[in-house]
């Protein structure tokens, strides 16, 4: 092999080596997306019931403060273990008279219930619980959820008796006696309260 051919082979080998190195550099590992939660992207709803026909009364809590916030590769993982603090003063039902009664004659009768506090615990199978503290009582409220992309929607139902809140229930029932009468003339305030939340998570 003459010198020219040798140089050509060496040059070709060098080009191939550089190309291989360049290709390796271009291969990048795919980084999983991270989900995170912010209080401003959460809507917390409540539903009370009145009359023997169980007429629903809807409302929201307009403020929520979060704790133990973390990032995770799934929306459910980011939510699991999150703590919350919801001031009862942020209660809103589009009826100022009703809101005032609920704040003073319902939550105001409870033991040290300026806020509703707790922890959100979610499993991967669409179930979980809200470990809620109200009226000085800690109790786990079962919930179900659906997760679609960045949106997680939770739903559950609590019984006020589980929180020893019979006095608060009697107080609001008495204050709204006539308003909670149905066509049968019976006044009834249910101990069941529906809860739900829509949570839109950030994705990075």
TrEMBL record:
Question: What residue stretches are annotated with the Lipid/polyisoprenoid-binding YceI-like domain?
Answer: 39-166
Q: Which InterPro entries match?
A: Lipid/polyisoprenoid-bd_YceI, TTHA0802/YceI-like_sf
Extract the Pfam families matched here. Answer: YceI
Highest rank taxon of the organism = Bacteria
Q: What is the protein name given in its UniProt record?
A: YceI family protein
Native organism: Aureibaculum algae
Q: What is the lineage of its organism?
A: Bacteria, Pseudomonadati, Bacteroidota, Flavobacteriia, Flavobacteriales
